[in-house]
Amino acid sequence: MGLSDMSRRDFMRAAGAAAAAFSVGLADTRSDLVAQTAGGSTDLLRVGMVGPGVQGRNVMTNCARVPGVKFTAVCDIFPDNLTKGLEIAGEGAKGFADYREMLEKADIDAVMIATPLNWHCEMTLAALDAGKHVFCEKMMSYSIEQGRQMVRKQRETGLVLQIGHQRRYNPTYLHALNLLEKEGVLGRITMIRALWHRNGDWRRPVPDPKYERLMNWRLYRETSQGLMAELGSHQVDVANWVLKALPTAVVGMGTRGYWTDGRDILDDVEVLYEYPNGVKLVYTSITQNARDDYYEQIMGDGGTLVLTHENQGLLFREARAEKLDWEQYAHKDDKGGVVLDSQATKGKGKDKDKGSEALEGAGENPYYLEMADWVRCIREGDTPHCNGLVAFESDVACLMANASIAQRRFINLPPEIYAV
Ligand SMILES: NC(=O)c1ccc[n+]([C@@H]2O[C@H](COP(=O)([O-])OP(=O)(O)OC[C@H]3O[C@@H](n4cnc5c(N)ncnc54)[C@H](O)[C@@H]3O)[C@@H](O)[C@H]2O)c1
């Protein structure tokens, strides 16, 4: 997988090196961590924020904690959100209603984009063309062709483009995936089941009907690619990451019409992906039943790994698999799952005197970690773990699932479809 694989290794190496630095318990202070994860430098980085809505304010608040970051400009077409964004930015930041004007007039080195999906490509291309590094929220692109344009533009300019799949920076995921890779704890992986189930209309209350399309952009195909984009893209990305492979075929179904409020996106999606060697990803996202909540469950002939709520990893060994040598020392949950604790990657219980070893960022907010690594990549000229190509690969899979549902057919995904 070229670049994406390379940057994944780089990130794991960086995490491993930092883990070694953290090997004596958690004696190191949070401020040490903050400095390390930002690349050890506190050079001023001037950032402009486009779209400080719900997620924009989340990533902005986390980015503002990274040493040396100053938000000098904020842009939003919705005045309330512009005001909220400027409050986070603090003194001296300039407000804009037009992102092009911001790119032209503001003193900025980098841009964060958290607008609705239909804007991502246009804004990213313009920011890269203006010489700014970019962090753009997931899903990266509204269409496959737009995604290609974004990756190509990044390559052309050599600037940093990072996409907001924060699981790639989450210590729980990094720890679990490290164990899979190093210790092969699941044996041969044959299937992944991932889902995001909710019971609700996914609708935001609007203060005035004129704001319906702006605030409920997720519900309309003109601005949204629905559940596969908003929820599925995170989880398909995890499957690609775990399997180090890309889907070779997809078939899906979906339903429209449960919610009758004028929306035109699907109410639920049920999708089956084929990966090389017959491995399958079974994916569902529904809005009418919340019993299963959300998780990614990775199944092998030696065990099952459940990654849930973006903060817990549980390992269940198959009866026929050999016992792991460290299993007896591990903490178990009430269902007998081994709790994978990124704050004590090894040694806990067994080597109490040596202290436990925490993975870099253990206990830290994954959104902070993704922002700190974006800043580090800009300062060090590095390629982000979740770069444009990584995001493009899961975008293709999600958009083709939507195509399969719309066309009611099984679709092969040849390697050319992932070519940029
Ligand atoms: N990584 C995650 O876990 C995560 C979570 C939620 C949302 N997201 C992503 O973040 C993005 C935003 O989602 P949200 O829930 O914050 O949406 P939102 O509607 O709350 O925020 C979007 C903001 O963009 C502004 N905007 C719209 N068009 C604009 C334009 N042309 N110029 C300037 N501003 C404009 C809106 O006024 C709004 O303030 C989406 O891509 C979404 O998929 C990611």
Q: Layout of SSEs?
A:
Layout: H1 2-21, H2 30-37, E1 45-50, H3 54-64, E2 69-75, H4 79-89, E3 94-96, H5 99-105, E4 110-113, H6 120-129, E5 133-136, H7 144-157, E6 161-163, H8 171-183, E7 189-197, H9 212-215, H10 226-243, E8 249-255, E9 268-274, E10 280-286, E11 294-300, E12 303-308, E13 312-317, E14 338-340, H11 366-380, H12 388-407, E15 411-412
Parallel strand pairs: 1-2, 1-4, 2-3, 4-5, 5-6, 7-10
Antiparallel strand pairs: 7-11, 8-9, 8-15, 9-10, 11-12, 12-13, 13-14
Helix pairs in contact: 3-4, 3-11, 6-7, 7-12, 10-12
Bound molecules: nicotinamide-adenine-dinucleotide.
Q: Explain this structure to me?
A:
By secondary structure, this protein is of the alpha/beta class. The chain folds into two domains: 187 residues, Rossmann fold (3-Layer(aba) Sandwich), CATH 3.40.50; 200 residues, Dihydrodipicolinate Reductase, domain 2 (2-Layer Sandwich). The chain has twelve helices and 15 strands. Strands 14-13-12-11-7-10-9-8-15 form a nine-stranded mixed β-sheet, covered by helices on one side. Helix 3 runs parallel beside helix 4 and helix 7 packs antiparallel against helix 12. The chain starts with a helix and ends in an 8-residue tail after the last strand. 48% of the residues are buried. Nicotinamide-adenine-dinucleotide binds next to helix 3 and helix 9.
